[in-house]
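Exercise 7. Given the encoded structure of a 173-residue chain, write a plausible sequence.
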């Protein structure tokens, strides 16, 4: 027999241990441990996914907060929330509007490619005295809105048009 099956016992000297007693875990024990690890991993992944959604929402809210600062810079420079294109009703990329202004930095916050959430929806409206910007959050039916009066809040609606109707500047669906 191989020497690995023999163990030194202080009282009896070398004793032989049958090979079946030397082996590790049974198949059932391994499967139970793997099942437990699988359940714990799925719980952990679901919490990570929730954390990712919260991070996307936090980024969107921060971007819109910075857009408020850029809008104020635009207003101080031009005396109005309109660019030379006049009133804006829904699209943030309206030609000659404050929402695509480079000097104030507004374009950084009203361009959907600057957001991590791939299916972001942005709506903008302005007249000479007021503006509103809203963006979809990661949960369906939730939108974040900022406006010229300093309001920053979450709006719940069936779709973005209801959350931010055309020409709306007061963040009320």
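Solution.
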């Amino acid at each position: 027999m191989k020497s690995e099956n023999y163990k030194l016992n202080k009282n009896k000297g070398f004793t032989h241990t049958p090979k079946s007693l030397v082996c590790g875990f049974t198949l059932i024990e391994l499967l139970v441990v793997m099942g437990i690890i699988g359940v714990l991993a799925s719980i952990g992944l679901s919490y990570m996914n929730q954390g990712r959604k919260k991070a996307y929402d936090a980024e969107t809210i921060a971007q819109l907060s910075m857009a408020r600062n850029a809008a104020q810079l635009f207003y101080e420079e031009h005396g109005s929330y309109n660019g030379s294109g006049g009133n804006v009703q829904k699209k943030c990329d309206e030609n000659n509007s404050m929402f695509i202004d480079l000097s104030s930095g507004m374009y950084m916050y009203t361009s959907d490619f600057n957001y991590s959430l791939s299916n972001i929806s942005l709506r903008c409206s302005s007249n000479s005295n007021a503006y509103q910007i809203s963006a979809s959050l990661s949960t369906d039916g939730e939108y974040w809105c900022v406006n010229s009066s300093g309001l920053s809040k979450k709006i719940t609606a069936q779709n973005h048009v209801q959350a931010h109707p055309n020409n709306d500047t007061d963040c009320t669906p």
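Remark. Residues 27-163 form one domain. Students should compare their own answers with the one above.
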